[in-house]
Structures are given as structure tokens and as C-alpha cells.
Amino acid sequence: MDQITLPIIHSEINDLELAANLIRTADRILVVGCSGGGKSTLSQKIAKQFGLVYVSIDRDVLWLPDWKQRGKTEQRNIIAEKILGERWIMDGTNPSTFDIRLPRTDIVVWVRMPRLLCLWGAISRWLKWVGRTRPEMAPGCPEKIDWEFLQFIWTFEEKFAPRVIAGLAEHGSNVPILQLTSRRQMRELLDLLVTPG
């Protein structure tokens, strides 16, 4: 089911202007959310606007050519190295590495779109890139879509969001969190970010 009432997160920000000011001055930003929600697009726009290094978990950490996953230890080692950078924005949700990522994060942006919008985002992305590898994906991983991936998106709020919430509470209770739940909110945030603070 879609998130009708959002769980209360300890350090959640509800003011987009405040969030924009925090993002404007942040050195390290973590962007999380369900596949197809727009987190990679948002991350790349923020990275370009503020000169942050863009780190894609899919491209830089998780995947090897032919959709083979790196081992968990190697993934963790790569993340541990990436988070040492002074200024970055990291796009990727996996809560199993929140313990090392959140202490280095100035603000979390949770792109928390309704599941139908996420499904549409994933399908339209596949149609755009079918047979080719999109820039935020690892080389040798042409765009694909399957039933398992669609099921993951459909059940994200029910099965995965509670893990995200628990991980944020455990490892980032002092880190401000902005939840974006509509395309309108995302556009408003981007508009605020291109306006001098």
C-alpha cells in the first residue's frame, strides 16, 4: 500500500526552505528511496548545482558488468573509502551500510514517491534506455526490467521502508531528514536550490 500517513522520523524537516538552506550548505548528502522515484536524477542535479562529487551506489559500488553483484565485504570497503571524501552526494538506499554512511552525512533526502509513480519511473526509464547502459549505472549493465524488480517496487513501502526508518533512527538520529512525497515537492525544492539563499 502507498504511504498514506508517514511515520514520524525524529529529525524530519517539513519546511522546504529550511531543507534547501541545509542542502545549500551541506558537504555530504545521502539520497535514499525506492527505485524509479527519481533519486538519481535529483542527486545529479544537486551535485551539478553545488559542485559535489556524485556517488551512485548502483554504478560505483554494487554492480559489475553483466549485472553481477560485488561481494558484501567489497561493497562495504568501497563505501568506506567513498565517504572519506570531503564533499559528495550519495544516491543509494541500502540500510546495511547506514552505520558508516549516516555519521558522515549532513542531511538525508528521502525521495518517497507513491508506488505507482515509482513503477512508471522504472518502466519509462527502461523504455528510454532499453539495450543501453544509463550514466548512473555500472558499465556493462544495459537497462532491464523484470517481475522481481517490479515486485520490489510494489512492496517497497511495506517491506523495505521499515528497515530504512529503523536504520535512520539507529545510525542517524541527529541527521536532518527531508521526505519528498510528490514531483511537485521535488520541483519546488529544485527551484529553491537554484535561487540564491
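That was protein one. Protein two is written in the same sequence-then-structure order:
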Amino acid sequence: MSAGRLRFVAGRLIQVVPVLAALLLIVVLLQQLMPGDPGRVIAGPRASAEQVAQVRRDLGLDQPMLVQFWTYVTHLANGDLGRSNRTGIPISTIVGDRAGATTWLLIGGLLVSTALAAPAALLMALRPRSAAARLCARSLTILVNCPPFWIGLMLASLLALRTGWLPVGGFGESFGERLRSMVLPSLTIALAAMPLLARSGAASLRQVLVADHVTTARSLGLSGWPLVRRHLLRNALPPAVTLLAVQAAALLFGAVVVEQTFGLPGLGAEMVNAAGQRDFPMVQALTLIFGTAIIAINLLADLMVALLDPRTTW
């Protein structure tokens, strides 16, 4: 790796530090901004003012904001995310139990969306005037306007309820059962993300097609898959990786809707339940987890772009 790209990577790593600090501050402030008094919620509607005040002291909510921030960061450094207001179970245990379904969903959605978007982008870029390319473009226009929950309901109705091939909801116990239960949710989240990936990929490929080095390669007789592999994909991959990172971050929020639609016991569904029941520590922890995941995904994308594109410098 060149010195310029090393500086680029070092700069991106340094930029993560203030972003993480800002995320932690937002997470601590979240408890103050959410409607309702956490002390009252935990103590109960019939608790006296003294009991509510005692709960607030136990939680440290009566301390200044900087003290609350330092306390939260200290506990976090020790791996303590707190306890759920609803159950009293450590949040790390709940996250460990539910992270599997969300991880399966996100990985499956990314793989399926990439597998669908790549051939669509190649078709619209290399054969833009063909009937298949026009049909593909119109289908993407329709698909991009369909909300994920509607796509999920249609898939469940057509592929699950009518045929019985796939489960409508739930998360199985064995590997095979989980694989089958993830087909419809992954396809749902992939169809929601695929139109933007395909259109952006096609636009990047069109820009590369008119580049001088591609024109030269064509004049030398290079065509077909060798031309695509050596000259098109290599130059179109960096912007595609960046867009894929953006879509991966969007999928985290789309997972909330999809998990609710298919009854998956994931982190997105837990976030909805925690917010509805005023489980403030759980909302804080999941906000921190989602935010950190988005930061990590974008950082990884920047590092991959630095490796793929030799022109990347700081």
C-alpha cells in the first residue's frame, strides 16, 4: 500500500474517534429526550414521589450530564450495557439472544440484493436499448416505490401461504430451519435495496465504458467477459462498494420493519418493543449498537475503496 493510501486509512481511523464520542453523547442524552420519566416508569404509576426519587438516584439520573456520561462510558468499557427495565435481565444477554436473527437477515439481504443488482446493472449498462434492459428499468421503477412491508406481505402470500414451501414467520432452531425462515425476509429486504444498487451500478459502468482505456481495449479487440472483468468491474467497484455500505446502513433500519412483518426475534423488533414499553436502557443500548454498526460499515467501505483504487490518497 502506498504512503498516500496509508495516510488515507489513518485519517479515516482518526475520524472515527470523534464520531463515536458524539454517538455516545447522543445515547446518554436520549434518556433525557425520550418522553416519560424513567424513574416513574420503573417505580410504577402508583409509586410515591419519594420512591420515584430513590429510583432516579439508583439509576444516577439525578447526577449532572457529564457525570452520567462518564458513568455510562465506564460501565460500557467493562462490557456492562445495563439491565432491561421490563425484565431485569442484562441487556448483553438479550442482545446475544437476538443478534443472530438480525445478522442472518442483514447478511442474507446484502447477498441477495448484490446477486440481483449486479446482472441488472450489467444489462442496463451494456445493452441499454434492448427490450430486456427496458423491462428491467421499468421493473426497478415500480419496485423502488413499493414499501418493504408490502413486499414482504406479497411474498408471504404468494410463496408461503399459497404453496407452503416456506415458513411465513419465526426463526427455526436448526441450521436448515433458519435458512428456510430467512428466505422470504432476505428477499424482502433485498428487493427494497436492489433498485438503487442496480441503477447506481449501471451509471458507474456507463461512465467507465466511455473512458479512454476502455476505448483502447475495444480497439485492440477485447470484448465480452474479459473486457468486463479487466476494465469495467475494476473501475466501477469503488463507487459500488461505497453505495453498498450506504445500503447496508439503510438495511439496519429496514430490518426493523421486516422483523416485525415476519415475526423474527431480532434486534429491530426488540427496539420497537423497548420503545413502546419505555425500556430506556434497552433503547440506549440498541441505539449505540446500531450506530456503531453503521460507523463500522462505512469505515470498512472506506478501507476497501482504498485497497481497490490506487488513486485513493489523503
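The radius of gyration is 24 Å. Keep this in mind for the problem set.
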